[in-house]
Amino acid sequence: MLVCNQLFLMTGKNYLTPADINRIGSYLLHNTVWSKYNILLFANSPFLLNSKIGYQIALRIIHNFHPTESLNENTTIFMGGLSDTVIALVFKKKLDYAQKILNELKKIGLPFYLMFFSSTLTLLQKIIDYCHTLNAQPVLAMIDAIVQLNCMEVAKKWLEIFKDVQQIWPEKEN
């Protein structure tokens, strides 16, 4: 799944059959135990799954996974995978789904050592706002702030994501 998701992001070609994607979506949608394996499976599929199914699975994960009860590597996978789901939904122009997932993620209390995700969620909100207003300044200001903190790899990744969003949500011509 990881390889197929990455190939899809790099080439735009989906190497899984619709039946394979439906089977994975159905498995995750009906899953009740969010082990590391299942969270990883979902985290590596948001760009391939149907928007509605991805949204429904994300909400199930959020409502059935309790990161404060089991703070471990699963929390990082959980937050990373669901953040990617928000981006996937923005790319698919499903802003209502993206906003609802983001709102749920913002409610999760994270320990201080996972505060990077708070910044990521703030960036995602600014990206969704950009899609509505086409005002790039808040996103660029946040990326600039990360550069000022000398977090160059994070800034580079965020800028790549934002450039991809701008390709999908081009500015209005005057």
Give structural notes.
This protein is mainly α. It has 9 helices and no strands. It is globular, with a radius of gyration of 16 Å.
Key words describing this protein structure:
174 residues; mainly alpha; 9 helices
From the spread of the alpha carbons, the general shape counts as: globular
**Rg to the nearest angstrom?**
16 Å
DSSP strand count: 0
State the helicity in percent bands. over 70%
Instruction: Note the main sheet.
Output: none
**Spans of 5+ residues with little confidence (pLDDT < 50)?**
none
The percent range for strand residues is under 5%
CA-to-CA gap between the ends? 42 Å
Number of distinct helices: 9
What class would the helix/strand composition place it in? mainly alpha
Average pLDDT, rounded to a whole number, is 87
Q: Write the element-wise H/E pattern from the N-terminal end onward.
A: HHHHHHHHH
List the helices and strands and how they pair.
Elements: H1 2-11, H2 18-29, H3 36-43, H4 51-64, H5 73-91, H6 95-106, H7 116-133, H8 137-148, H9 152-168
Helix pairs in contact: 2-4, 3-5, 4-5, 4-6, 5-6, 5-7, 6-7, 7-8, 8-9
Write a short abstract of this structure.
With 174 residues, this protein is mostly helical. 70% of the residues lie in helices and 0% in strands. Helix 4 packs parallel to helix 6 (95-106) and helix 6 (95-106) runs antiparallel to helix 7.
